[in-house]
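Inverse folding, one chain.
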């Protein structure tokens, strides 16, 4: 069975904001969480991204996952940068780009939120489209084991959390 591509996403609540251009369709799958005695594991599943229709030439498509963690010590901006993963793929005419799964070891008693930025450019050229995908809904995070929950928490931000 092939996962469908849609604009803005195939997940129930992910919000797409177009920065510029006309982004291609992007598969946005829910973040998965597993708890184990040593902490949690977050899995941002592999996905496909289609080319933008703004150019018939071969395109370079890049995804950047940005993970934020709630940090109570930062009163002004409690959702602090935690980690990032960036990868790029080439998509020839008639093809789409595939991006691998990203796994991240999470701490117990910590809440995590994800954003994904995708940019499209003509291979070797300037960017032609960009969009931000905000995982801002509870359904964007799915727990696979007990001691894991997803909810809108601090500052009404959707997140996934592990409790031992």
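Residues assigned per position:
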């Amino acid at each position: 069975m092939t996962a469908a591509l849609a604009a803005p996403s195939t997940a129930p609540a992910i919000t797409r904001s177009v920065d510029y251009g006309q982004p291609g369709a992007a598969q946005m799958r829910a973040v998965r969480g597993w708890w184990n005695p040593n902490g949690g594991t977050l899995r941002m599943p592999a996905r496909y991204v289609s080319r933008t229709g703004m150019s018939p030439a071969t395109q370079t498509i890049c995804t950047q996952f940005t993970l934020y963690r709630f940090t109570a010590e930062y009163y002004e901006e409690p959702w602090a940068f935690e980690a990032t993963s960036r990868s790029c793929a080439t998509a020839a005419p008639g093809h789409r780009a595939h991006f691998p799964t990203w796994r991240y070891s999470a701490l117990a008693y910590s809440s995590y939120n994800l954003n994904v930025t995708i940019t499209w450019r003509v291979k070797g050229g300037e960017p032609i489209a960009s969009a931000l995908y905000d995982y801002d809904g509870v359904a964007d995070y799915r727990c696979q084991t007990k001691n894991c929950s997803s909810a809108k928490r601090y500052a009404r931000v959707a997140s996934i959390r592990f409790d031992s």
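The longest strand covers residues 79-91. Confidence is low (pLDDT under 50) at residues 1-11.
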